[in-house]
Amino acid sequence: MLRYLTSGESHGKLINAILEGIPSGLELSEDDINVDLRRRQIGYGRGGRMKIERDEVEVTSGVRFGKTIGSPISMIIRNRDWENWKNEMSLIMRSEKVNMVTRPRPGHADLAGGIKYQEMDLRNILERSSARETACRVAVGAAAKKLLSEFKIRVVSHVVNIGGVWAKNLPRNPNSIFHLAEKSELRCADAEAQEKMKNLINSAKSKGDSLGGIFEIIIMDPPVGLGSHAHWDRKLDGRLAQALMSIQAIKGVEVGVGFRSADLFGSEVHDEIYYKRTRWDRLKAKGGFYRKTNNAGGIEGGISNGEDIIIRAAMKPIPTLAVPLRSVDIVTKKPFKASVERSDICAVPSAAVIGEAVVAYEIANVFMEKFGGDSIEELRRNFSGYKNFMSKL
What is the similarity comment for this entry (predicted)? Predict the structure, then answer.
């Protein structure tokens, strides 16, 4: 029901996205999107690019008088550093030579992409493979969040690990976790763990190194029935995992207790089911069914079961290092130290915001698939009918 496309290069004129399928009548402003764009750019351990770019979206179509009109929504984000790259990234044929990038960086798409597309100037690869592209996905995700908010569904994130330091002292309530994370430089709701993480980042910076980590996404109050058990490509956990794995530097995803479930007995993993009629009002579109645990992370058989959906993603350390790793020139085949672009020491807090965006898009997509509607009012009627059905269970 929803789909989007992004385009643009890291140091080109702009990056942009086209989002299709948002129903008409949804209130949407540039400010709604800019809030998340700003959140993506902050975080302890970010690099020099964040001092240059102050991302702001321009919505150029699909919205009129502050509301969506059902047509594709076009959004552009201009690159402020473009003026310094007009020659290197010129769109027209040039007679003079430009500096070629021929030394692939370990951990990047440089070498594999250069071979695949038969490009000896690896800038043609690194410009598009850059995480700069994720600003567009955050813009798309912000629109998806706005849609979900109409149905009281929230998507929030927080950092649970950086460099092996775990956040342990966390509130049980997702709202409390989110509020603490929003005040944190590392989007970590555990103040003690945050200080240890910051010390580790400082140590990595002094050594010219980088750090990765793990962030958690929580989808609050999703209805039962998103996704499907019937087709492999419609399973909700599969779709969420693919969305998160598509983010640059993400190397692993787990739902609920995830990998830890492999070490436990079945009796310790599976969430027992209870029923109490009076729980309907509090638990929204679940009927009277509930669970006392949520080891499944809100998804069973590829379908949301009405509990909060909990999913985590592991991010590898940023591969561009101030102390570069060894590499081989793609043209001369001589060994060199890998070339260095501006980079971060740790970008896990920003990746968490990007994770929110891609997850919100997927949840909005499966929500539209289930409840349909060309307008917000039609969508509300369809959802209301489903809730009425659930109230009778």
Answer: Belongs to the chorismate synthase family.
